[in-house]
């Protein structure tokens, strides 16, 4: 297993664990509407985590090949849509802040890709991890 795969697996494990915790603990502490929102947030956080992994793969060669840049653009579009989905399913202030940070980081990556530069994905990964944390109960 490569280091990238190990990081990806750890990231997915954390997201899935947060989702499982939300599924188990939420009924004990909140009403059904809040539980459903927490689960939606968790599911979408997992989707965003997968998008971030796909983005990392896509930008590996994005600065050297137009096909890879196109792949990065597709992943960035999917990431934007998933960010919008989470925003549509929650009114939580912490989730809103995490989404704002994630959107800013994604915008910076898009700017780098558009300029033919190799983007720094650290802020995207950090913001996605924060989203996963705030989506957990």
| Unreliable segments of 5+ consecutive residues | 24-31
Radius of gyration: 15 Å
Structural class: mainly alpha
State the order of secondary-structure elements, H for helix, E for strand: HHHHH
How many domain units?
A: 1
Q: What is the residue-averaged pLDDT?
A: 74
What can be said about the biggest beta sheet? none
What is the distance, rounded to the nearest whole angstrom, between the alpha carbons of the first and last residues?
A: 32 Å
**What is the number of beta strands?**
0
Characterize the structure shown.
With 137 residues, this protein is an all-alpha fold. The chain has one domain (3-135). 83% of the residues lie in helices and 0% in strands. The protein is built from five helices and no strands. Residues 24-31 have low confidence and may be disordered.
Provide a concise account of the structure shown:
This protein has 137 residues and is mostly helical. It is built from five helices and no strands.
Write the layout of secondary structure elements.
Layout (H helix, E strand, L loop, with lengths): L2 H27 L2 H28 L6 H23 L4 H22 L7 H14 L2
Helix pairs in contact: 1-2, 1-5, 2-3, 2-5, 3-4, 4-5
């Amino acid at each position: 297993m490569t280091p990238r795969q190990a990081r990806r697996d750890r990231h997915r494990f954390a997201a899935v664990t947060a989702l499982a915790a939300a599924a188990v603990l939420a009924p004990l502490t909140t009403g059904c509407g809040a539980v459903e929102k927490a689960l939606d947030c968790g599911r979408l956080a997992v989707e965003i985590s997968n998008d971030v992994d796909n983005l990392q793969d896509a930008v590996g060669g994005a600065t050297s090949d137009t096909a890879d840049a196109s792949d990065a653009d597709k992943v960035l579009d999917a990431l934007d849509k998933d960010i919008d989905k989470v925003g549509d399913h929650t009114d939580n202030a912490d989730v809103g802040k995490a989404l704002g940070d994630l959107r800013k980081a994604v915008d910076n990556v898009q700017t780098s890709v558009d300029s033919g530069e190799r983007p720094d994905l650290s802020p995207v990964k950090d913001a996605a991890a924060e989203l996963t944390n705030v989506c957990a109960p």
